[in-house]
Amino acid sequence: MSCLKEKIAPNKFTYPFVLKACNRIGDLNLGKSVHGLRFRFGDEVNVQNTLVRTCCCGEEGGVEFPRKVLDEMCKLDSVSWSAMIGGYVQVRRSSDAISLFRELQIEGVCPDEIIMVSV
């Protein structure tokens, strides 16, 4: 039986795990579809961070969608920044990673160890 049929709604903890599963099976389109269902948790930074990480791990050069998600986030934390910087590095867009690092500094965010390793 489907959870939705039983009116058991997914929550802010469910979505990150589903997105991670989409990443593990390599289905970026499914991950984007799941993102479309997350309307109730649009401001949950954990859900959005997982989406950024998941989509950055997708197809080569596919960083436009996760960057759009990052740009639309109301609140960014160090995981948000490191996920996107790491995504740029992964697809060999080093200049974009450095630009985002500079943006992070302009925003007054103190980079953590993970961000520094990525840069």
From TrEMBL:
GO MF annotations, alphabetized: RNA binding
Keywords of this entry: Repeat
Each PPR repeat, start to end: 77-111
Biological process annotations from GO: RNA modification
Keyword Transmembrane: no
InterPro entries: PPR_At4g14850-like_plant, PPR_rpt, TPR-like_helical_dom_sf
A Pfam short name: PPR
Domain of life: Eukaryota
Keyword Cell wall biogenesis/degradation carried by entry: no
Transmembrane segments: none
PANTHER family per the UniProt record, alphabetical: PENTATRICOPEPTIDE REPEAT-CONTAINING PROTEIN
Protein name from the UniProt record: Pentatricopeptide repeat-containing protein
Organism the protein comes from: Populus alba x Populus x berolinensis
Organism classification: Eukaryota, Viridiplantae, Streptophyta, Embryophyta, Tracheophyta
